[in-house]
Amino acid sequence: MRQSQLREHSRILGMGAFRPDVIVTNDDVCQWIESSDEWIRQRTGIVTRHRAGADTSVVDMAEGAALEALEKAGIEASQLGAVIVSTVSHPYATPSAAAALADRLGATPAPAFDISAACAGYCYGIAQGDALVRSGAAEYVLVVGAEKLSDVIDNSERTISFLLGDGAGAVVIGPSDTPGIGPSVWGSDGSKWDVIGMTHSLSDVRELSLAAEAAGSLSAAAAERDEDGKKLWPTLRQDGQSVFRWAVWEMAKVAQRALDEAGVKPEELAAFVPHQANMRIIDEMIKQLKLPESVAVARDIADAGNTSAASIPLATHRLLQENPQLSGGLALQIGFGAGLVFGAQVIVLP
Amino acid sequence: MASNEEILAGLAEIVNEETGLAPEAVELDKSFTDDLDIDSISMMTIVVNAEEKFGVRIPDEEVKNLKTVGDAVDFIANAQA
Ligand SMILES: CC(C)(COP(=O)(O)OP(=O)(O)OC[C@H]1O[C@@H](n2cnc3c(N)ncnc32)[C@H](O)[C@@H]1OP(=O)(O)O)[C@@H](O)C(=O)NCCC(=O)NCCS
């Protein structure tokens, strides 16, 4: 018997992004919730977020980002040894977004699967892609973070709806002669399962819809809330304070560990790309990590809002577009979100 | 164990770090929001830093009861006791 041949190094070879074209301003948001442009800017740094139209799906956006990533990497879809999509808004429990994406790209029969790790999904995907390439299980791996969060929010939900946007970012990971992806520091804390997530489960939907059907009015049930305040369709909600405290406090430590494990000092970084959840979280992390001013910080959140699994690749893509000289430099990236889950690593920018 | 004066000085330092406010402005009877103009997000950051500095746990649901600097000093002093 033989086992696959290990490889020493992997790196990100190319990157792509897809930004849907409907722009939602803070004033738009204020028609749905009691808030103000000033409040949202001051507490979150968000000015606009993008949304995909009814005819654009998670897989469509993933495809847009993936095509650019493949082209930049100079890799044919047929060379992919795995296709991974991180998402929480692909509206089918099964089959996966990744299987549809692989087929559209022409990567069939590459193994394809989705990762459910919310805003840490992209970093989880990088951890997987890196491991698959170095273990010899695959030569090239496509990792996509794609979200149509507008499908899973209730515009009138004041705890979260104003933060979120849609989009997709993708990378191709492949073999490298030099280190390109540092050790992943990743984990979970399911004791905080409740602080951010869906209002209710699909089993609840079944019960609600059966009850509505029995009462003869499914459409009324879809529009009305039941006594627990649930609409038929589950949407996101959160306890913002708990998430905020966890993010600034625990996540700075995780980011520091990712630096330590990669043997990289803050002053050696070219860029810092935290999950784009809140500008104030980003600012606090910079302070805690004592990042020098020479480190470029991704602040895509101002225009894109929080796009969950897509936020880090979208923000990195933009940073590279606006500062091409960062290419080849080291970036510290960290994702964190519902689960709770987190993932961080230092990478070489493509 | 820190005295109330030490807690106040430590808090003033944290507030100064977060907001740039002069430490002398952080007095016991001052309200965080109304007098010191600290928003709910800065408040969370201050709380997190205070937990670290004073080795106490300030639960999420307690934060909204800490209206004045004095409330925070008392809470920390009790939690340390
Ligand atoms: C969501 C978030 C911006 C809310 O800010 P906050 O300061 O925690 O808000 P609070 O719920 O404490 O409310 C503070 C005040 O703002 C008001 N408020 C809350 N949400 C508001 C909104 N969307 N618009 C306007 N005002 C709002 C509250 O009514 C409250 O007012 P009051 O003091 O007069 O009663 C913040 O908690 C946050 O960003 N958390 C991190 C969440 C995150 O990033 N999640 C995704 C991780 S993947």
Describe the structure.
Chain B: Belongs to the acyl carrier protein (ACP) family. Chain B: This is Acyl carrier protein. Chain B: Keywords: Cytoplasm, Fatty acid biosynthesis, Fatty acid metabolism, Lipid biosynthesis, Lipid metabolism, Phosphopantetheine, Phosphoprotein. Chain B: Residues 2-80 form the Carrier domain. Chain B: The modification O-(pantetheine 4'-phosphoryl)serine is found at residue 40. The complex is a heterodimer of chains A (350) and B (81). With 350 residues, chain A is of the alpha/beta class. Chain A contains eleven helices and 14 strands. Chain A has helices at residues 26-29, 37-44, 58-73, 97-105, 121-135, 202-215, 218-223, 240-262, 279-289, 301-304, 311-322; strands spanning 9-18, 22-25, 48-51, 80-86, 112-115, 140-148, 166-176, 185-188, 196-198, 236-238, 271-274, 296-297, 330-337, 341-348. In chain A, the strands form four sheets. Chain A has a five-stranded mixed beta sheet with strand order 1-7-6-4-5, sandwiched between helices. In chain A, strands 8-14-13-11-12 form a five-stranded mixed beta sheet, sandwiched between helices. In chain A, a hairpin with a 3-residue loop joins strand 13 and strand 14. In chain A, helix 8 (240-262) packs parallel to helix 9 (279-289). Chain A is globular and about 65 Å long. Chain B is built from four helices and no strands. With 81 residues, chain B is an all-alpha fold. Chain B has one domain: Non-ribosomal Peptide Synthetase Peptidyl Carrier Protein, Chain A (Orthogonal Bundle), CATH 1.10.1200.10. Chain B has helices spanning 4-19, 40-54, 60-63, 69-80. The termini of chain B are close together. The complex binds coenzyme A. The site of coenzyme A has 17 residues of chain A, from helix 2 and helix 8.
